[in-house]
Design a protein that fits this description.
The chain has 197 residues and is α/β, with parallel strands linked by helices. The chain has one domain: Rossmann fold (3-Layer(aba) Sandwich), CATH 3.40.50. The protein is built from 8 helices and 6 strands. A 4-stranded parallel beta sheet has the order 1-6-5-2. Strands 3-4 form a two-stranded antiparallel ribbon. Strand 5, helix 8 and strand 6 form a beta-alpha-beta unit. Helix 3 crosses helix 6. The protein is globular.
Length: 197
Amino acid sequence: MHRCQTCAIPLPALICTCGACLKQPPKLQRCTSVLSYAYPWQDLITHYKFQADLGLARSLGRLLASHPEVTEQLLACDALLPVPTSSQRIQERGFDHSLLLARALAKQTSIKRPVLTNVVQRKHLELAQHASKREQRLRQLRGVFSIEPAQVKQVANRHILLIDDVMTTGATLDALASCLLAAGAASVCAAVLARTP
């Protein structure tokens, strides 16, 4: 499926960037989605994320690694950064789904890039992003990500590739990219398993 190069929304062939991204360019330089968030992938990702089927991480990492655009992004980046999950969410689920996915991707490819952990902190949001409307997402994401001064050297002047499971509106990825760019990252791109329609 052909998609917008910066927000991964489906587009007709030969169009590289959607009207929304042309009107208000996101902080992400590029975003690749491997799948559409629909049956059967929606059920599989939900099972992985909310029912702790950790065995799926390897297969989902392989799906990411096998996509040609993700390969291009891996070649262009200096490091992978799983989209941070708040410590409360990790305690609720018992694992960090984005971190496991990023590590699975790193193991499935011959392109060796470090997986950055504990570089960016994420505040806990009472209302989960997947349960929020776009306006709520944007409002509650203001200031949600931060980087301790001692961690800035991990991202400064580096091309960072964000890894996540599902992209809905892109608000989370954009807020994280903004934080990283403010800390001196050279560029921020993203690769996600699935994009909602």
